[in-house]
From TrEMBL:
It catalyses: cytidine(2498) in 23S rRNA + S-adenosyl-L-methionine = 2'-O-methylcytidine(2498) in 23S rRNA + S-adenosyl-L-homocysteine + H(+). It is an enzyme of class 2 (transferase). S-adenosyl-L-methionine binds at S182, A215, P216, G217, G218, D234, D254, D271. The active site is at K300. Pfam families: FtsJ, RlmM_FDX, RLMM_N. It comes from the Bacteria. One of its GO terms (cellular component) is cytoplasm. Residues 180-274 form the Ribosomal RNA methyltransferase FtsJ domain. It is found in: Cytoplasm. This is Ribosomal RNA large subunit methyltransferase M. Its EC number is 2.1.1.186. Residues 1-70 form the RlmM ferredoxin-like domain. Monomer.
């Protein structure tokens, strides 16, 4: 039996739980979840399989709603405030890790814990270094997950199947000149879906892009900043400064009816607030018709059963892409800057 902790956005615990349950079952692993609303994490207890079996059979980047995860080593309760470190050091005797991370849930309670971790981290690291717990060649990272200053979980995640970001969260600075906060969604999507080595060719000047549902221009801003020429499709008004760059053509058209005149569009991005089935079908149409090379789009999920609905939409896309005779790559993630929506990346391969 092994226990895993999966981090997610607060309020998405049921989606995170349903998703891991589904993937584990598909991989022949059986277990059950404990998920409480707004806790910012889910516990998954595996009842068969060796320790860390889940890490071997399920890839974190295939999970939409999980940001980060670890497998439990030990749970420490009622830590003595005068010496919290000794029990941790004792529990880790003989273990080696490539790195250590001090974690907490992405909730208000978690934020309160984060100020405590700042005081705790230096003496803890000293003690663990003394015991040589950190070794460059080790294959897993140690997670010290704090519920509060007296209740701690120790766990590990494998270096080759985890997020390199603290808590699985990419923090980005809002660019002061961007027209809307949603600019960060597209910026985060570029970081998440596009390998840094591909940025010079895929996110560079001279490429053409189409932004469906562009107003006021937060997503267009990201494309313009990278030197692209953008057709911004929306009945609403676009930000004036953005229009003055000369890189944006604003077309007051229906994004579901718009068709590019030339076959020179690299990026299609779409943030229209519409039914996920409609947006998904539109994105597939663009890829199957070869109207663009790559697409990044949001699927809005205001319904209760988000995971189940998303699974149906994905199936609908897979069928349509198969019928369209296209070999493709589809990735989906509930990004940090997403709220009741997920971000998708679709391209031909
Ligand atoms: C969430 S906002 C987009 C925000 C934008 N991505 C940004 O970063 O500033 C959704 C936009 O989609 C537009 N929209 C909704 N349905 C549309 C349609 N059928 N055709 C074109 N635009 C549409 C709305 O007018 C609205 O401006």
């Amino acid at each position: 039996m092994s226990r895993y902790i999966l981090y997610c956005r607060a309020g998405f615990e049921k989606d995170c739980a349903n998703e891991i349950q589904h993937h584990a079952t598909e991989a022949g692993l059986f277990g059950f979840c404990r998920a409480k609303d707004n806790f910012g994490y889910v516990e998954f207890e595996l009842t068969n399989g060796e320790d860390s079996a889940l890490f071997k059979k399920v890839k974190l980047d295939k999970l939409v709603f999980t940001r980060q995860w670890f497998c439990l080593i030990e749970e420490l309760f009622d830590l003595d405030p005068s010496d919290r470190i000794s029990p941790i050091v004792k529990a880790l005797a003989g273990h080696e890790y490539a790195d250590i991370t001090l974690d907490y849930a992405d909730t208000n309670e978690g934020k309160a814990v984060s100020s405590f971790t700042k005081k705790f981290v230096v003496p803890l690291q000293k003690a663990l270094n003394k015991q040589k717990v950190v070794q460059n060649k080790a294959e897993a990272v140690l997670h010290i997950f704090l519920f509060n200053s007296q209740h701690i979980l120790l766990g590990f995640s494998p270096c080759n199947n985890r997020s390199d970001l603290h808590l699985g969260i990419r923090r980005l600075k809002f660019p002061a000149s961007a027209p809307s906060r949603s600019t960060l969604k597209l910026e985060e999507a570029f970081h998440y879906f596009i390998a840094k080595s591909d940025w010079p060719t895929k996110l560079s000047g001279g490429l053409n892009a189409v932004d469906l549902g562009a107003a006021p221009g937060g997503w267009t801003y990201q494309l313009v900043q990278r030197g692209m020429m953008v057709s911004a499709i929306d009945n609403g008004p676009m930000n004036k400064d953005l229009m003055e760059t000369g890189q944006v053509k604003h077309l007051r058209e229906d994004g579901f009816k718009y068709e590019p005149k030339k076959r020179n569009v690299h990026w299609l991005v779409c943030d229209m607030v519409e039914k996920p089935t409609r947006v998904a079908a539109l994105m597939v149409k663009w890829i199957v018709n070869d109207w663009c090379k790559e697409a990044i789009f949001n699927l809005k999920l205001p319904m209760k059963q988000r995971y189940q609905h998303l699974a149906q939409v994905v199936e609908q896309m897979e069928v349509a892409l198969y019928e369209g005779g296209v070999r493709y790559k589809l990735q989906i993630k509930h990004l940090y800057h997403d709220r009741e929506e997920v971000t998708c990346y679709l391209t031909r391969i």
